[in-house]
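Progress note, sequence design subtask.
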């Protein structure tokens, strides 16, 4: 189970790596049903106003956040999704059921 201290540490590390628009916790941790083998599901929206122009740029965005929480991930598995603000808005506008569920059932940490 993810404690409040662990949530604060995750948010702090993510925010120290890059300007952040939103951080969502979703899945079993957000639902309160996490067990001993559960991972931590995070969706991070970067405060960048452009779409990544290449796979390399998209990967760099992911790696920036992933590296910031690497030592936490060694203790607790983390499933991480990273989007820029326009990417997230485009996915949301497309009617993505996944994003709708994250917005409805997830917990905004930032």
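Output:
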């Amino acid at each position: 189970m993810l404690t409040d201290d662990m949530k604060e540490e995750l948010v702090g590390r993510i925010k120290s790596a890059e300007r952040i628009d939103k951080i969502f916790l979703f899945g079993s941790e957000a639902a309160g049903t996490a067990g001993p083998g559960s991972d931590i599901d995070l969706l991070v929206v970067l405060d960048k106003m452009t779409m990544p122009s290449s796979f390399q740029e998209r990967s760099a965005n992911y790696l920036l956040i992933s590296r910031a929480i690497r030592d936490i991930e060694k203790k607790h598995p983390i499933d991480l999704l990273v989007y820029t603000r326009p990417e997230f808005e485009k996915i949301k506008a497309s009617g993505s059921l996944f994003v709708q569920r994250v917005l409805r059932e997830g917990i905004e940490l930032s």
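The chain has one domain: 4-108. Work on this subtask will continue into the next period as scheduled.
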